[in-house]
Amino acid sequence: MSNIGISAMHIQLLNNDRVIMYDRTDFGPSNISLPDGKCRNNPNDLALKVDCTAHSVEYDVSTNSVRPLMVQTDVWCSSGSVNSDGSLVQTGGFNDGEHMVRVVKPCSTCDWQEMGNNLIQSRWYSTNHILPDGRQIIIGGRKAFNYEFYPKTASTSNVFSLPFLQQTNNPREENNLFPFVFLNVDGNLFIFANDRAILLDYKTNTVVKTFPQIPGGDPRNYPSSGSAVLLPLKNLRSQTVQAEVLVCGGAPRGSYPKADKGEFLGALNTCGRITITDPNPQWTMETMPLARTMGDMVILPNGNVLIINGAASGTAGWQIARNPVLSPVIYRPDNPSDSRFEVQNPNAIPRMYHSTAVLLRDGRVLVGGSNPNELYNFTGVLFPTDLSLEAFSPSYLDQESANLRPRIISPASHLKYTYGQRVDIRFTASGLLNTDLVKVTMVAPGFNTHSFTMNQRMLVLPRSGMVRQVGRFVYQISCVFPKSGIFAPPGYYLLFVVHQDIPSEAIWVRIQ
């Protein structure tokens, strides 16, 4: 789609197959008007006090259309996560938005509801994660060396100090904003900022483990802006479930002040991989085929990782990156270490600062944004504002894979399940089915901004028995949902049947 009216700086797929996107309110008029003559009247706005254009839209995947939404306070560089009921809870921002909580529900007429100043600490460049009990934790942000919870309870109605965020804060550079946060399989939080990580017991505010510094010591968080994923969780029935984190790209220390003066250092070409459940965890370093800062990492339904967007030199920030990286890369975590990366066909549009990427239910990856300009500047700049959306289609969607592609016929989408429940999944496949190469995966769709997808998570569901043929080209596989919210926080997930690395379209499942 060539013009959605705004820049897709922040992006989240909801369970009605619509994608919520927004940029910032202090950005001047966008390219899409608010409906019915509505205008936003905000005396605190830094660009337009009265603005009759939208700064958030809902994109309908099935009709390739957008609907303007209205945000009142500034959502720039904010964070978010989908609640267990399927609504997007969005926190913080800039200026008058820094203490705000806003909610948008998945419905065709819903709009943003501003819940008020429900944050104790101003949150700008923070990270959110859903917890096993369904609450959100909101960690860090500019000058915010602490965390808090939403919604509040009697015991969590204050902020909790996290000195680690102060320790990882470089003067004039920071490099610890939008920390990479993952819920570990022991219920603690893995938090990576700058060039190192800790394991935090958020219930007692105790650091239970300090991980080694990533080799090389270069920063990986904003504004150096590498990316990170928790690799797919497997063998969920075993005594010890292994959890691995992959951190890729970024920019060398000092890149931000140098880029500000017109010297653009080359981006990092390394990934670090660490098993965070090991008693003595160590980083293993790998070399990417293309150096990249501001890349986005998306877990695909088959467990591979897409690395897309970004630049080969400079850093995140307004107009201080050069050399767009146009070719995505697929990373196959289960391959031997020398054959994990594969460069894909390039796209034509540079996707640099403020670009986004999110997995869709049909297995494509929606890509948007790239906005290294103040205001909506389309001319006279090196990388003009971009209002387009495009989709990356992984090779598993190629026509020659069509006869291997499963299609789920039952259960229906949007059913509710409990932890540990068994589910029988029926699917069709028109070609020869290799029953040993069938798996069922479950993906939590994440909130993507600034090269990190918060709450992104994949689980490979344990099989219960063999794949059975129950009709002509019809098969049944029985699986068991994760046993607790520590493995899969409550909420909506995309469930895929994958055959020989070729995924079906997903159905939505809700676990609680």
Helix-strand layout with pairing:
Elements: E1 10-13, E2 18-22, E3 40-41, E4 50-51, E5 56-60, E6 65-69, E7 79-82, E8 88-91, E9 101-104, E10 113-116, E11 127-130, E12 136-139, E13 146-150, E14 160-161, H1 163-167, E15 180-183, E16 189-193, E17 196-201, E18 206-210, E19 227-230, E20 244-248, H2 255-260, E21 270-275, E22 284-287, E23 296-299, E24 305-308, E25 311-314, E26 321-324, E27 329-331, E28 341-343, E29 355-359, E30 365-369, E31 389-392, E32 407-410, E33 415-417, E34 422-428, E35 438-444, E36 447-449, E37 452-454, E38 457-460, E39 468-471, E40 474-480, E41 491-499, E42 502-503, E43 507-511
Parallel strand pairs: 33-43
Antiparallel strand pairs: 1-2, 1-36, 2-5, 3-4, 5-6, 7-8, 8-9, 9-10, 11-12, 12-13, 13-14, 15-16, 16-17, 17-18, 19-20, 20-21, 21-22, 23-24, 24-27, 25-26, 27-28, 29-30, 30-31, 32-34, 34-40, 35-38, 35-41, 36-37, 39-40, 41-42, 41-43
Domain Galactose oxidase-like Early set: 405-511
Organism: Nicotiana sylvestris (Wood tobacco)
Subcellular location: Secreted
Throw out a few tags for this protein.
mainly beta; 6-stranded mixed β-sheet; 2 helices; 6-stranded antiparallel β-sheet; single chain
